Amino acid sequence: MTKALFINGSPRKNGNTAQLLKRAMDGAREAGAETGLVDLYDHSMNFKGCMSCFACKIKGGRKGVCSFRDDLQPVMEKAADADVLVCGSPVYCGYPTAGLRAFMERLIFPAVNYSDFRSPVINKPKRSASIFTMNCPDRQIYQSNTYDILMDVNARSLGMFGPTEILYSFDTYQFNDYSRYDAAQIDERHKDEMRRTQFPEDLRNAYETGKRLVEEAAGDK
């Protein structure tokens, strides 16, 4: 059975990012996959990024999977065994969250082959996607000189494992009660309109992506 793993890099377990990931999971299950979801900001998890222990580079040692022992190590094992990997994160200051970036360090560095940089150490090829949610409207990502480039670099690193893609969800609804926050430049009525009209479309796209990735991964076998 095709295995699909979903990584929530948002501090909110039921926020916009989590909702999109869960719809992608629904699509993956519809396509027949065994699915799992990991909340990186779960209070029970204690982990860091790459610790530079170089255990993944030792001659005769296990290659391609981070073996540093902490709460993320079992997650790395699941990620290595997955046929489909979907990572989701809100965008903070132009980057995915620190939690997701720590996960990505632990995922990517063991695959870097110091004996042949052109041939990453891949235990199992996988289809992948990154889902990014953000407050800004889509036009602003292109008005910035580097914003879209930074997000693309973060996501495209998954391409060493196989075909990868990016889904954006722009102009998201952030607060349950906008009146409590100093956010005078944000129009709550516009945000509510986007939540009612655009976000359902984003959810549909996430569902279709999860389903399609599993179908494509099954065809790769």
Briefly summarize what is shown.
With about 220 residues, the protein is of the alpha/beta class.
Q: Total helix count? A: 7
Head-to-tail CA distance between termini: 10 Å
Main β-sheet description: 6 strands, mixed
Calculate Rg over CA atoms.
18 Å
Query: Could you please say which CATH topology applies here?
Result: Rossmann fold
Compressed to H and E, one letter per element, the order equals: EHEHEEHEHHEHH
Number of discrete domains: 1
Number of strands: 6
Average pLDDT confidence is: 93
CATH superfamily: Flavodoxin domain
Note the beta-strand portion. Answer: 15-25%
SSE-based structural type: alpha/beta
Give the overall shape, derived from the CA principal axes. globular
Assigned CATH architecture: 3-Layer(aba) Sandwich
CATH class: Alpha Beta
Q: Name the helicity range.
A: 25-40%
- List segments where confidence is low: pLDDT < 50 over at least 5 consecutive residues: none
